[in-house]
Structure formats: C-alpha cells, structure tokens
Write a structure and sequence with these properties.
Blueprint (H helix, E strand, L loop, with lengths): L3 H24 L1 H31 L2 H11 L2 H9 L2 H9 L4 H37 L8 H24 L3 H25 L3 H24 L7 H20 L6 H7 L4 H37 L3 H24 L1 H8 L8 H26 L3 H55 L12
C-alpha cells in the first residue's frame, strides 16, 4: 500500500510531467497550429473532391472522362516548360537568404516565370496541334487544349505562391486561400457542369476560370515591380535546368500511359481508366498534402545536415500515407460505388491497382527530393533519365500484352523502379562522403 509520502511523490511527479507537457506545447504552439492548418486545408481539398466526384459522375459520360483524362495527362509534360522548376531554387535558398534578398528573388522568379511561360505555352500548343494532325487524334483540339494548357500555366504561378506561404509559415493565409479556391471550384461545377450541362467543356472551363482568378491574385501578391534581377535569374536557371529536364522525364512515369492507351482506340475503356486515375488521384492528393505540410522542415533538416530530423520527417510522412490505401483496398467496391454514383463500378479493378502508386510515388518523390535538396540537381537528372528509359520499355511491354490493366500496374511499378535507382544514388553519395557528413551543411 502506498504511504502518504509515496502518494505525494507520485502526485509531484504527475504535476512535473504535466508542466513539462504544458511547456512543450507552449514552446511549439505556433508550429503545431501551423501544421494543423496546412494539413486541414489540404484535407478539405480532398474531402471536397470526394464529395464532387458523385456529382461529376452523374453528369459526365465515360467519353467525357476520357477527354478530360487525355488532356490532363499532358500536364506533367508541359509543367517543366511553364514553371522552370524555379520554386525548388527558391525553397532551397530561402533559409540562407535575408529578407530583402528573398523579396527580390521572389519578384524576379515569378515575373520571369509569368512572362517566359506565356511564350512557351503558345509554342507547346503549336507543337500539340502538329502532333494531332500527324497522328490523326480523334479528340477535338479546340477548346480543350487551350483550357488544359492555360490551366497549367496559371497553376504554376499559384503553386509558387503556396510554396512562399508555407516557407513563411503563414498557415492562416494558406488555409483561407486554399479553402476559398476549392469552394469556388464547387460553384463552377454546379454552374457549368450541373446547371448548364456543359459536360467535359464545362468542367474544363470551370477549372480554367478558377485558376485564372487565383493565378492573377497570386501574381499580384508576389510581383511588386516590373524588373528582373538577371543575376538571380541566371543563377536560378543554372540550378534548375537539370530539374526541368528531370521533371519533363516524370511524364513518362505518369501520363505517357494515357498517350499509349489512346492509340488502342477504345474510348469507353479509356474513360473507365480515367475514372480510376481520378479516384487514385485523391490518394495522391492526400499524400501530397502530407508532403506539403512537412516540406519546409524537410529542406531545413537537409540544409542543417540534421540526419535524425530528416529521417523522422521521412518516416512520419510515409507512415501517414499507408492507412487510407489499406482502408480503400478493404472497401473498394463500396467506395467506388459511392464516389461514381454506381455508374462506373467497372473502373474498380483499375483503381485497386492504382492506389498502390500513391505509396511508391511518395517514396520515390521523397528520395529524389533528398538528392535535389543536397545540391545534386544534375545527378537527379541522371537518375530520372535512367529510370525513364526503363519505364518507357516497361509501359510499352505491359500495354501491348495486358492493355489497360497493364498500364495500371505500370503506374505502380514505374515509381518502384525509380525508388530503387534513387536509393542506389543516395547510397553512393553517402559512401563517398558527399552527403550527411559531420560538420557539413548544404549551401
């Protein structure tokens, strides 16, 4: 039996523990609040997307989904030519710059991206038109191509602003803008797809208009003067050109499959495949939400050569992403029925496979980002080039032999291949004392 002295000691220990927890919360209150806002904002985006999906499924045919999915597949191809991967340069150097340098760099990078990106958008549209004519593509070029490419151009500017807000730890602003963006997206779905029955055109017009509104807003918030610091622009391009090419090669991991499947000439099956891609994208969006929440901490730990902190971030983010996938696998038919209003249950078999890609893609992204954050952007290009050659061969073989199911498995295996290659490069860097050595800091 505990004596009064024992009880007093226990109570004192309990009080001390409570005080320690209280002090820990107070010390990290701001960080905890920011993380919760970042995460909640992104989860709201996922929830809104899930709620919209039955509505879209009720008003869009399989052919509509095929058209939308086909044009969406070009996003990863054109993105590097419009963003120039400049946000990676900004994020890498943010914590080493003083505030005036940050403002000048932000102004220069976003202005450069906005001006040059406009010209490259026009060139890419011209190139796509030539491809359509040569290959006799069955889908209409106008207005779908203009809406799809214009949306990506505007998203690049908007995404840069989101990165800037996260680096500044302005979680409340991030939350408000993110939620408003998604609510406005709902409004245009209800107006253009449901009320006006605009089908694929209505859906793509709505996305373009929303991104136009927020793209202009983000540009005005980031660009304060119409002048470029050419030294910063030159240094950024020197760092980013390997990342641009590396990002371009990402298209062959996710997007190239749809290009090949269009040649199969089965629009209905391509529509089902696109529905599955859309469902799987919510898992990817959740995964990206986790990554975005912890991204500033990731770069900070790499810059400070904090291996323990970096490993903690990597393990935490990847563990959090597995649970939704396991839940979906156990309830796939029910979930697909609800999300597609029971119109596209035939897409379930594709979706079951594709959800695994959110895990392999997340692991691959984390490993590749580690290589880039350590300052080896050119090595990242070699890594991606090696992987893309193997993936192109894999996709062609899988689609020729197994059709749409082969393409679905290809999405999973593509990033598994990249993960193995990335691990090999990181191991080589570490063994040759290039990274994570005592006393070293990434510049």
């Amino acid at each position: 039996m505990a004596t009064d002295m024992d009880m007093e000691a226990i109570m004192q220990n309990h009080n001390n523990t409570g005080m320690q927890i209280s002090r820990l919360y107070i010390n990290h209150k701001h960080s905890i609040r920011n993380l919760s806002l970042y995460f909640t904002a992104n989860i709201i985006q996922v929830v809104i997307g899930l709620l919209l999906n039955p509505l879209l499924s009720s008003h869009l045919s399989a052919e509509n989904f095929a058209v939308i999915g086909y044009y969406d597949s070009f996003s990863l191809f054109i993105l590097p030519f419009l963003s120039f991967s400049l946000s990676s340069y900004y994020a890498k150097n943010y914590f080493t710059w003083d505030e005036p340098k940050r403002e000048e760099a932000l102004n220069t990078l976003v202005l450069f991206q906005g001006i040059v990106g406009l010209f490259t958008t026009a060139l890419l549209l011209g190139g796509l038109k030539i491809y359509f004519n040569l290959q006799h593509i069955t889908f209409d070029f106008y207005p779908f191509a203009l809406l799809a490419f214009g949306k990506v151009y505007l998203q690049c500017i908007f995404s840069f602003y989101f990165m800037h807000l996260r680096l500044q730890k302005r979680a409340k602003a991030f939350f408000n803008i993110n939620v408003l963006y998604n609510l406005l997206n709902v409004v245009f779905v209800l107006l253009l797809v449901v009320a006006m029955r605009g089908e694929a055109i209505g859906r793509m017009e709505g996305l373009f208009i929303v991104n136009l509104i927020f793209g202009v807003y983000a540009f005005r918030k980031q660009v304060k003067k119409a002048s470029l610091n050419f030294a910063i622009a030159k240094d950024a391009l020197r760092f980013c050109w390997p990342l641009m090419l590396s990002a371009l090669l990402t298209y062959f991991f996710s997007g190239f499959d749809t290009l090949l499947l269009e040649r199969v000439d089965d629009v209905h099956s391509l529509g089902l495949y696109s529905v599955a891609v859309k469902i799987a994208s919510y898992f990817l969006l959740f995964s990206t939400s986790i990554d975005s929440t912890f991204e500033p901490d990731f770069y900070r730990h790499v810059a400070n050569n904090n291996r323990k902190g970096l490993m903690k971030v990597i393990l935490t983010t990847n563990v959090l992403k597995i649970a939704p996938v396991l839940i979906f696998l156990a309830t796939a038919e029910l979930v697909m029925g609800i999300l597609t209003n029971y119109r596209y249950l035939d897409a379930t078999s594709f979706a079951r496979i594709m959800v695994f890609a959110s895990i392999t893609r997340s692991i691959s992204f984390t490993l590749s980002m580690t290589i880039v954050a350590c300052g080896y952007s050119k090595l990242s290009l070699v890594e991606k080039l090696t992987g893309s050659i193997l993936v192109i061969i894999m996709y062609i073989a899988l689609i020729n032999n197994y059709g749409f199911a082969g393409a679905a498995w290809g999405q999973v295996l593509a990033y598994a291949i990249m993960s193995v290659i990335s691990i090999g490069f990181l191991a080589w860097l570490y063994m040759n004392k290039k990274i994570f050595q005592p006393g070293n800091k990434t510049s």
